[in-house]
Amino acid sequence: MPPDVEGAITTMGSVNNEFFYWMSIALMMLIHAGFLAYEVGASRSKNVLATAMKNLLAFATIIASFFFVGWFLYNAMPSGFIEMTDAAQAALPWSDNMGPNTADSASGIFWGAFALFAATTGSIMSGAVLERIRTSAFLVLTVLVGSVVWIIGAAWGWHGAGWMLTELGFHDVGAAGCVHMIAGFAALGILINLGPRLGRFKADGTPVTIRPHNLPLTMVGLMLIFTGFFGFLMGCVIYSNEGYATIYGSPTTLSAFAFNTLMGLAGGIIGAYMMSRGEPFWTISGGLAGVIGVAAGLDLYHPALAFIIALGAGGLIPYIGKLLEKFKIDDVVGAVAVHGGAGLYSVVMVGIFLAGYPNTDGNPSISLWGQFVGAVVFMALGFIPAYLVSLGMKKIGMLRIPPEVEAQGLDLAEVPATPYPEGIPVTVMRGDTGDIVAVPADDAGEVVTIPKEEVK
Amino acid sequence: MPPDVEGAITTMGSVNNEFFYWMSIALMMLIHAGFLAYEVGASRSKNVLATAMKNLLAFATIIASFFFVGWFLYNAMPSGFIEMTDAAQAALPWSDNMGPNTADSASGIFWGAFALFAATTGSIMSGAVLERIRTSAFLVLTVLVGSVVWIIGAAWGWHGAGWMLTELGFHDVGAAGCVHMIAGFAALGILINLGPRLGRFKADGTPVTIRPHNLPLTMVGLMLIFTGFFGFLMGCVIYSNEGYATIYGSPTTLSAFAFNTLMGLAGGIIGAYMMSRGEPFWTISGGLAGVIGVAAGLDLYHPALAFIIALGAGGLIPYIGKLLEKFKIDDVVGAVAVHGGAGLYSVVMVGIFLAGYPNTDGNPSISLWGQFVGAVVFMALGFIPAYLVSLGMKKIGMLRIPPEVEAQGLDLAEVPATPYPEGIPVTVMRGDTGDIVAVPADDAGEVVTIPKEEVK
Amino acid sequence: MPPDVEGAITTMGSVNNEFFYWMSIALMMLIHAGFLAYEVGASRSKNVLATAMKNLLAFATIIASFFFVGWFLYNAMPSGFIEMTDAAQAALPWSDNMGPNTADSASGIFWGAFALFAATTGSIMSGAVLERIRTSAFLVLTVLVGSVVWIIGAAWGWHGAGWMLTELGFHDVGAAGCVHMIAGFAALGILINLGPRLGRFKADGTPVTIRPHNLPLTMVGLMLIFTGFFGFLMGCVIYSNEGYATIYGSPTTLSAFAFNTLMGLAGGIIGAYMMSRGEPFWTISGGLAGVIGVAAGLDLYHPALAFIIALGAGGLIPYIGKLLEKFKIDDVVGAVAVHGGAGLYSVVMVGIFLAGYPNTDGNPSISLWGQFVGAVVFMALGFIPAYLVSLGMKKIGMLRIPPEVEAQGLDLAEVPATPYPEGIPVTVMRGDTGDIVAVPADDAGEVVTIPKEEVK
C-alpha cells in the first residue's frame, strides 16, 4: 500500500476512534442520570435531596481523582504492582499525553471512557448505603472504590497485559468482574460496618420492607441505565479500522455484543419476573442482572445460551436479596445482589460454558479454575479494603449519622432545600365551557364544578 | 484500486457500519425508557406499576421471540409467503450468522436494530390497552404484533425485494406503514374487543375524560421518545462507505433525514397545538404525529413541504381522537390516532406529493394507487390478526380483567409493591437560621416556623 | 494517491461526517428533554403545564424559523452585515442546498446541528421568565433570541471568517459566548421589563424564595442536559477524515474536549457545592457552569487548569444569583447567573490563560483585549434587542399576564388539562399473605392491615 494511502487510512481510523469513544462517554452519562433518578426514587421522601447530592458529589470527586490517580494505576499495575513503564509514565497527570495534544488524539478519549467506568463503579456502591451514611465517609469510600480499588482490578484482569490474563487466562470482556463484582463486594464490606437503617429489622430479626418513595422514578432511572449500558459495553471493545477487539486483544464484533446484550436484557427481566413473582423492583433490576450475567462472555456465547444464562442471573437475585436479609444486611438498591451476585455468576459461567476456548498471544486458555481464582481475587479486592476503611471509620464514629438525624431525615439536617414543598396537590382545571372543574380523576372521584359566572 | 487498499477501505466501512447500527440500537433504548415514563404517567395511580410491568415484559418477550421467529420471517417473506432462500436460512436461529462470528460482523447489528423496531411496534399497541387488559392476553398480543405481524409487513413493503416495492412501487422510507400503521390498526382491532375502561363513557355514550395521573412524566417520556426517534430513523437507512441508501436501495443522505425530521417535529407540534387549542397531551403527541406524518417521504420532501404536511398530521390527530370516542373506542394514549392515523396519512401523502418519482432497479415509480393499495394492505395486516386473536380471547374470557379488579386498581391485585407509599408529602426544611420552617410554597402558603431552640 | 482511492476515502469521510453530526443532533434532543423536566420541576404546581407548553412551542417555532431565517443569517453575516456571498445564497430556504440533495450531503446535517443550538439558546432564556410571561410575548422573544440574535453573534465570533476572529483573534471554541452569554444577557434584558413574580420580594425588598415544586425532577432534567452537552460540544468541532478542527479551523482533538469537559463538570459541581454550602439547585447548576466556564478554551487548557477554572465558575454562580436579587431580578432557573455569568467568565478566562496563543491563517493571536471586546459585543447583542423588544411589549401591555391569573396559576387560565389530577396519593398494596396493607412507608408510619377475608 502506498505510504500516503496508508497514512490517510490510518488518520481516518484515528478520527473515528475518537468519535467512537466520545459516543461511549456520552451514553455513559445516561448511567449517571439514571442512577440519580433510581436512587432518589428508592429513598424515602425525607432523604431525597441528600441522596441526590451524594450522587453528584460521587461523580465529581471520582472524575477528578481518576485524573490524578486512577488512570496512572491502570497503566502502572498490570503486572500486579506499580511499575514505572512507559505506559505508566504517560499516564502521570503532568505527562504530555494527559492534556490537549494533537500528536496524541487517543489518550483523552480513553481516559474519559475509563473515568466514566470509574464513576459507575463508585455510584453502584452509593445506592447500597443510602439514608444513613455520613457524606464525608461516603466520599472517602466512593473515591476508594471508584479511583483506586476497581482500577487495580481492571489493571490485573481487564487489560491486555494483566497478570490474570497472562497467568490464568481470565476472560471477562464486559467488565462483570472488575466493575460489578468489585462494586458489589465493596458495598457488602461497607454495609456490614454501617448496619441497617433504623426500623429495617425488628428486634427479633424479622425484616421490614422500607419502600421506595417513588418507584416509577426508580424504574425510569433503570431504563436510562439500560440505555447507558450500550455506552459502557462499547467502551469494553477496542476500535480499530481493521476490526474490533476485546480488551484482551482477541477479535470480536459489535454484532456479537448486540446479540448477547439484548438477549441478556430480555432473559434477565423474564427470569427475575418469574422468580420474584412479578415484584417490580426485582423485575427491572433483573434486566441489569441479565446483562451483567452474560457480560463476561458477550463475545462468545450463542444468543440462545446468553438468554438462558441471563434467565438464571435474573432469577437468582431475589434469592440473594433474601439471603442478605437473613444476615441483617440492608442494601437499599440491591447492589450486592445485582452487581456483586450477578457479576460473580457471570465470571463463573464463563468458566463453565467457555472452558478450553483459546486466548490470544500464548496466554492460557479459558478455564473454570482461572475464572474461579479470578472471582476470588475480585471478591477480595472489592471486599477487604472497603471493609477495613469503613471499619476504621466506624471505630472513630465517622461512618454513620446520629440516629436522631436518621429518624428525622437527612434532608432536614443536611440540605438547605426541600424536594416537594407543595407535596403534589390535587389540582383543578377550567373545562370546555369555562367553568372551573375539580377534576374527576376516575369514576370514583366526585366532580365539583364552579360555574363560570362565579369565577372571578 | 489495489486489492490491499480496497480491502482496507472495505474493512473500515464494515467497522463503521457496526458502529452506526450500534448507536441506532442504543438511541432506540430511549424509546423504551420514554414509553415507560409516558405510559406510567398516562395511567391512574392505582394502575401505575401494572403499566410499568407490561412495558418491561413486552420489551423482553419481543426481543426473545424476535430472535427465534421474527428475523426469519423478515428474511423469508419478501415475496409474500415463506420461501427458504439463502437469506431466510441465514436467519434461522441455529445458523452460523445468528451468533458471534468474526466472518459476519453485520447480522447481529442488523438483527438488533430490527429487534428494537419490533419492540417499538409492540409497545405502541401496549399504551392503548392499559388499565384493563389481562397480562397474559397482553403478552400474546404484543408478541403477535411485535414479532410476527409487523415484520411480515416489513418484509412485504419495507425491503429491497418486497413485493409491494416490486409490484406497486410502494415508498415508505421511514417505516410509517409497517411500524406505525400496523401498530395503530392492531391497537384498534384489540380495543374493539377489549372495550372501554369502566366509567370512560356514560350510559348515554357521553365520553368522560380519564386523566393521566402525572402528565409531566408523560411529557418527559415523549421527549425521550423524540430523542430515540433519531435512532429509529438512522436505523431506516443503509450505511455504506459509498453513501447512504434507503431500505429500498435508492441513494439518500442523513442531511435529508435531518431536515425533514426536525421540520416534521416542529410542524406537528404547532399543528396539534393550534387544532387542540393548546391541549398538552395532543400538542406533544403532535410532535410524534409530525415525524410519522413525513416519515414515508423523508428522503424526498422539501423541508418546507415537510413542515406543511406535518402541520396537517399534528392538526389531524385530535379529530381522530374525537371520532374514536364517537364509537366508544377508549385508547389510553392515542395510539390509534397518532400511530395509525398519522401513519396512514404519511403513506398517502407520498402518493399525492411524490407520485411519478422513479424507484431503482426497474421497480414501478411511486404512485397514489400504489400507496393506497399499500396502505390498505397494512391496515388489514395490522387490524385483522389482532382483531381475531383478541376476539377469541374475549370469547373464552381471557382478554379482560374482572370489573372489581379494574375498579380497585390493577396494582393492588397484581403487583406486590406500591408506587408512592408516602404519597408525595409536603416536606419541611431547616432555614438559614437553623429554625425549622414549614415551607412557604408560594405567596398563598402560610409560613410556620419552629425556632431552633424548640427543635430537639 | 490514485484518484479512485482518493475518491473512495473522501466519500467515506463524507458518510462519516453525516453520521457524526446526526449523533450530535440526537444527543442535543436530550437537552430539550432535560429542559422540559428541569423547568417543569422548577415551576410551582399551578404553572406546570404552562411551563411545559412553553418549552414545546419554543422548540417548534425556533426550528421552523431557523430554517427560514437563522441559517441564512449565519452564512451571510460573518463580515458584520448581510452580504450575499455564495454561502449566503446557498443558505436561502429555496436554494438547492436546503433540501434533499445527493450532491450535497452536508448542508442538512450542519443546519440541523445549528438548529438545535438555536433551540438551546432560545430555551435557556425560557426558564428565566417562567410563571408570569404571556405566551405570545414569549414566542416572539424566543424566536428573536433563538433564530436571530444568537446566530448573528455566531456569524461574528464563532465562524472561520467572522470579524471577531479576523479583527480580534477572538477564541471561544465551545460557544460560551454566542450561545450562553447571549442567552443569559437576553434573559436579563427581558427580566428587567418583566419584573419579578408576585410575592418574590417583600415590600421592603427582602427576597422570598419560591421553591421548585419538584426539585428531584429538576435535577434529573439537568443530568439529561449534561448528557446532551456531549452532543452540543461535538457539534462545536469540524469533522474531517484528516482530523478534527475547531470552528475556527485550528486543529484539535475530541480527546482534548473529553478531558476538559469532564474536568469542567467535576470542578463546577464541587465549586458550587462548597460556595453554596450544599444547596442542591446551585450544586447541580454548578456542573453546567463548570462546563460553560471552560468551554471557550476546551481545546487548549490543561485538564488540571480546567478543573480549577471550573471550580471558580461553579463557586461564582450563587453570588451572581444573590447579586441579582439585590436588584429585584427574579430569574426562576438562574439562567442569567449560570449562562450569562459563567459564559462571560469563560470568555474572559481565555484572555487571561491563553493570551498570546496563535490563531490560524494570519488571524491575530488570542489576547485579553480581544476577549474583553468580544465579551462586550456579546453582552450588548444579547441584552439590547431583548431589552428593547420586551420594553415595547411592556408599554403596550403585551408582556405579562394579569396579576389575578398569575395568583391563580397559569394552568387554570391557559391550559385545558391538569398535571396531577389525583395528587400523588398514598397507596395501599396486597401483602404476601393476601391481606391488604396500608403501606408502612418507614418506621414512623402506622401499619394498617385489612385481613384477606374482609377484602371483597
UniProtKB/TrEMBL annotation, chains A, B, C:
Biological-process GO terms, alphabetical: ammonium homeostasis
Domain called Ammonium transporter AmtB-like: residue spans: 20-415
GO cellular component terms, A-Z: membrane
Molecular function GO terms recorded: ammonium channel activity
Sorted UniProt keywords: Ammonia transport, Membrane, Transmembrane, Transmembrane helix, Transport
Segments passing through the bilayer: 20-40, 52-74, 108-130, 137-158, 173-194, 215-240, 252-274, 281-298, 304-321, 333-357, 369-390
UniProt record similarity statement: Belongs to the ammonia transporter channel (TC 1.A.11.2) family.
Organismal lineage: Bacteria, Bacillati, Actinomycetota, Actinomycetes, Mycobacteriales
SUPFAM superfamilies per record: Ammonium transporter
Compartment list: Membrane
Full protein name: Ammonium transporter
Main location: membrane
Species per Swiss-Prot/TrEMBL record: Gordonia mangrovi
InterPro entries: Ammonium/urea_transptr, NH4_transpt_AmtB-like_dom
Annotated membrane topology: Multi-pass membrane protein
Membrane in keyword set: yes
